[in-house]
């Protein structure tokens, strides 16, 4: 063991350099500087002041609508998007699956006693990788202990579920690895902070037929191609529900770009 090996989980400098992931919160004693440099910003705002003149007027009108009016306006447009929200967490003080697998006994106890998952869902010879909970699904055994997510074609439904009481249980720092400066700690630093990610997906065919081929994707918005480039997925990490208004503005703006290509 060298001074650059985590004494708790065994992650060393070579592993960090190759994978860019930590095996437990104690790894921050060794790799905090590099880890922190890769954490996504937690600020996000989008309004008409950031767009080209030809779109600014319509977006400006949308901005000043009430939330209920914005839902109605989006319903009229019927954007061809599907939406996904996820939140990742690691149990406080435990080694992550990337280093030692899923701690099923401890995790089972937390799921039942900590967030109220029915015992019947965790019975059986094999540990479930997907567990229905909180009107979405819990996933285990990835790079972090827990991931909750919901996928829907309705943006209004998405927010109604991520603002629901069950998800508030994921906001307790006593249950999960939490650092005063970094907030919720995940194996991959790009998922740390709030531990959240919100995305919208649409057909690449529709995207290619957008009205303005020279349209530039806002700099804060990341994307990747899915299913052999059949779909494009735009996403934001470290998304807070308090940023909902800006996200509605963004969805409306993107919907305007592809409206003619529906």
Automatic annotation (TrEMBL):
GO MF annotations, alphabetized: ATP binding; kinase activity
Domain Phosphagen kinase C-terminal: 141-203
UniProt keywords, alphabetically: ATP-binding, Kinase, Nucleotide-binding, Transferase
Entry annotated with the keyword Mitochondrion: no
Pfam families referenced in this protein's UniProt entry, alphabetically: ATP-gua_Ptrans (PF00217)
Tree of life domain: Bacteria
This protein's name: ATP--guanido phosphotransferase
Species of provenance: Leptospira gomenensis
């Amino acid at each position: 063991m060298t001074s650059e090996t985590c004494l708790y989980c065994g992650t060393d400098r070579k592993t960090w350099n190759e994978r860019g992931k930590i095996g437990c919160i104690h790894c921050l004693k060794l790799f905090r500087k590099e880890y922190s440099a890769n954490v996504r910003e937690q600020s996000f705002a989008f309004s008409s002041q950031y767009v080209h003149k030809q779109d600014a007027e319509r977006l400006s009108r949308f901005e000043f609508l009430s939330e209920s009016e914005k839902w109605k306006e989006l319903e009229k447009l019927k954007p061809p998007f599907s939406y996904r929200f996820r939140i990742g967490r690691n149990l406080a003080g435990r080694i992550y699956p990337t280093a030692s697998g899923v701690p099923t006994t401890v995790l089972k106890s937390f799921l039942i006693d900590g967030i109220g998952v029915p015992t019947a869902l965790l019975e059986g010879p094999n540990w479930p990788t997907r567990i229905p909970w909180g009107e979405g699904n819990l996933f285990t055994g990835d790079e972090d202990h827990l991931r909750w997510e919901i996928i829907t074609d309705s943006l209004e439904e998405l927010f109604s579920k991520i603002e629901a009481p069950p998800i508030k249980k994921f906001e307790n720092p006593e249950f999960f690895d939490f650092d005063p400066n970094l907030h919720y700690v995940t194996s991959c630093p790009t998922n740390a902070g709030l531990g959240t990610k919100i995305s919208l997906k649409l057909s690449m065919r529709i995207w290619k037929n957008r009205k303005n081929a020279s349209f530039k994707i806002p700099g804060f918005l990341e994307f990747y191609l899915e299913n052999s480039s059949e779909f494009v997925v735009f996403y934001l990490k470290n998304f807070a529900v308090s940023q909902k208004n800006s996200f509605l503005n963004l969805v409306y703006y993107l919907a305007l770009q592809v409206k003619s290509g529906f």
